[in-house]
Amino acid sequence: MSRRNAFYAQSGGVTSVINASACGVIETARANRDRIGKVLAGRNGIIGALEEDLIDTSRESASAIRALMQTPSGAFGSCRHKLKSLEDNRAEYERLIEVFRAHNIGYFFYNGGGDSADTCLKVSQLSHTLGYPLQAIHVPKTIDNDLPLTDNCPGFGSVAKYVAISTREAAMDVASMCATSTKVFILEVMGRHAGWIAAAAGLAAEKEGDAPHIILFPEIAFDRKKFLARVQRCVKRHGYCVIVASEGTQYADGSFLSDSGTRDAFGHAQLGGLAPTLAAMVKDELGYKYHWAVADYLQRAARHIASQTDVDQAYAVGKAAVEFAIAGKNAVMPCIERGRGKRYTWRIGEAPLEKVANVEKMMPRSFITRDGFGITAPARDYLAPLILGEAYPEYRAGLPRYVQLKNLPVPRKLRKRFRVS
Amino acid sequence: MSRRNAFYAQSGGVTSVINASACGVIETARANRDRIGKVLAGRNGIIGALEEDLIDTSRESASAIRALMQTPSGAFGSCRHKLKSLEDNRAEYERLIEVFRAHNIGYFFYNGGGDSADTCLKVSQLSHTLGYPLQAIHVPKTIDNDLPLTDNCPGFGSVAKYVAISTREAAMDVASMCATSTKVFILEVMGRHAGWIAAAAGLAAEKEGDAPHIILFPEIAFDRKKFLARVQRCVKRHGYCVIVASEGTQYADGSFLSDSGTRDAFGHAQLGGLAPTLAAMVKDELGYKYHWAVADYLQRAARHIASQTDVDQAYAVGKAAVEFAIAGKNAVMPCIERGRGKRYTWRIGEAPLEKVANVEKMMPRSFITRDGFGITAPARDYLAPLILGEAYPEYRAGLPRYVQLKNLPVPRKLRKRFRVS
Question: How many CA atoms, within 13 angstroms, populate the side-chain half-sphere of residue B242?
């Protein structure tokens, strides 16, 4: 078998550990030079393939590639571009094959979430449909933790850790101040459809009365009255109330609170943001002094406090993807399998892509307390191991030493240009 | 001299290292048992003194006190309560003396910012006015970095580090996504009157073009047109734009972009909501996809990534305060003096409280670039050493092991009750 090159691309929202998966792919390919040629990365994800804008990762030093282990964001650029079906956009698929053929690409490693798994599956099918031999392996990544078949998704554990730590820290701050000042603190976290991230904040609490006192999940219809009653009861009992809210918190009719177009306590139009909306409610109805924070990108970029477990798993799925490719597999995804023992163990398993694509893993209802405001013991058992270990990056002059790759382009071979609109 | 007890209280907004100062005070007092009796802490700050709600720190183990070094927030509770002048509220001062006399308190250690320095000065003057011997020492603390005479303020370095790291991390995230998605990211940070915290974000940039591309300071009148033109130029040049904005960003007429209309006990405006305001401007005028984050309490509670320099200095000012007291000083504040050499060094100095109280140290105009959107080399030289070193807390099960003291009350001695309204 001639040595064919590999294509690697990052897709969708990036995480603090997606580059650890890139490191796993590239280092493992380098360790198997007899089987795999160069790893060519798509600049800005799949768009790089379509536009023949490829990055030659072989021009990066071993130490630069190793430094990806401690570097957040997408080192080659990512994108939000979903390939339509072959019927709807044959031109894009044909272009992909044209580029792959020109650069002797035989392996397609796609590092992303649910949409990307779908794209990866479609690409794997090209092999048959367009008569071009290609093995497509999906490398799981999503802070949303919503991919099926895998116990958890690389990227999630580090956000979970960040959110749990930040909740604990901010809660202690509020507890110090509540006698005369702030009584309610609201932290808005990511999670549009599933409450996994908000749930992780629950790990901050160790005993009854600890913050967070209220978690708002997209899975539980928001009930303003019940929410405000709970806030009030909490402030009366504990002196303060810490709320962690999923950005996807919604009313029973499915409308997001953050899209509500309401006005704040002072008549100003709400400019978006669930946290200020909730804060205005608390202020209007209960009159408590509040503070709110919106973590936004900070939470998914916080490599400075990444979970070691997450970093290890992110690397492992990248490594396994290359090993699967070498073993001749196609249309699969390395997944994380949890051991059955009391002590947390995990190993890499294999999931067929057709069972991954377009399936969203929701949080089980049994992970949410009956009242809808907290997490249960099974949720805690599931979440706790994912935040284990502190994978500190190196520092220089007080700041993390994150790598910026050279990202040198592979010379174009095709005369035809292609622009992704 | 009979051994008199010490009173220690935390005041105003807490920080991630104020407890390191508490540790410095308590450990140093314990090491001088022949000179100082017990350290009695005010529960919820000065209110604890007024209401005779004192905490007996001698009931805490040495290891619990040591654990304060790595615990954010105010371990004894803080408050926002400013004592008026002696003429305006003689009752409160007389009550203080009554409580101090009942508990044989001869030393008053007040750990706070500018307003607290003023209170501390007033208390120091009681000694004369009300004929009660008392030494009052102010222990500097404020994330705002706005106390005069000290090179910097304990609490600031850690916020600076958090903000610089978060800016770098989030910027890398945006840079990965900007080809097809988010182009503008706005991080709102604290800083009502002085732009020290926002300035610290500038440390994230190492070379031309690095984020943050725009810093908004309270010191520079906000010019909507100029701001939007700069955002647009930045996106055109770099593909994305990262903005770090002080909550105190204001128009030329002094009105805050984010003023929510409420005032705290000190009469300060409660701010928040600047980031969404700026985001709406960007969206309306330029149409770029944006994300925004508001760090709020997360930034000042982030002990998980505190600056080692800051922790060391916070401890040192607490220690020095007790040493000053033993040396018979009154109405002083230990301050931080920077060495003159090229390599950063610091030592503890002494500042008279009457020169500290009610003086706000603004950022020199020379620290802000001529265009008003960035920091200069002198600012960088000043700020860089303050974020040096990573003072990681211990972890257990993936979360920082922060201490919760027992905070046992000192039995009341006075029959008269006093309620702070």
Answer: 28
Higher pLDDT among residues A129 and B52, named by residue: B52
Residue A179 in contact with residue A239, Cβ under 8 Å?
Answer: yes
3-state class of A133 per DSSP? coil
Note whether B399 contacts A81, CB cutoff 8 Å.
no
Kindly indicate whether the ipTM for this predicted assembly is greater than 0.90, answering yes or no: yes
Average pLDDT over residues A308-331: 98
State the pLDDT confidence band at A269, using cuts at 50, 70 and 90: very low
- Decide if A214 contacts A239 (C-beta within 8 A): no
List, in sequence order, every beta strand (DSSP E) within B247-321. 290-294
Written as one letter, the residue type at A74 is G
- Chain B within 8 Å of A257 (Cβ-Cβ)? no
Contact of A266 with chain B, judged by CB distance below 8 Å, is answered with yes
* Amino acid, single-letter form, for residue A204: A
Q: How far apart are CA B306 and CA B390, in angstroms?
A: 6
Q: What is the pLDDT of residues A143-195, one digit of tens each?
A: 999 999 999 999 999 999 999 999 999 999 999 999 999 999 999 999 988 99
- Are A399 and B204 in contact (CB < 8 Å)? yes
Q: Read out DSSP for A177-192? A: HTTTS--EEEEEE--S
Q: From the candidates B144, B146, B151, B312, which is the catalytic residue?
A: B144
List Cα–Cα distances, A185 to A25, A171, A234, B79, in angstroms.
42, 8, 12, 16
Beta carbons of B298 and A389 less than 8 Å apart: no
HEC string of B18-37 equals: HHHHHHHHHHHHHCCCCCEE
Which of B15, B317, B360 lies closest to B138, judged by CA? B317
Among A53, A88, A115, A144, the one annotated catalytic: A144
Per-residue confidence (pLDDT) for residue B266, from 0 to 100 = 52
Arithmetic mean of pLDDT, A32-46: 97
Which of the residues in chain B have pLDDT under 70?
Answer: 1, 260-272
- Name the token pair of B24: 């410095």
% of chain B exceeding 90 in pLDDT: 86
Contact B73 A303 (CB under 8 A): no
pTM: 0.96
Handedness of CA B88, B89, B94, B97 (dihedral sign): negative
pLDDT (0 to 100) of residue B322: 98
**A170 lies within 8 A of chain B by CB:** yes
Tens-digit pLDDT profile for residues A49-75 = 999 999 999 999 999 999 999 999 999
Q: Where are the alpha helices (DSSP H) in B287-326?
A: 297-301, 308-326
Chain A CA closest to residue B388: A398
Look at residue B365 and give its three-state secondary structure: helix
CA B414 – CA A258 distance, rounded (Å): 52
DSSP element (H, E) containing B396? strand B395-396
Q: How near does any CA of chain B get to the CA of A142, in Å?
A: 14
- Determine the pLDDT at residue A407: 98
Collapsing DSSP to helix, strand or coil, A382 comes out as: helix
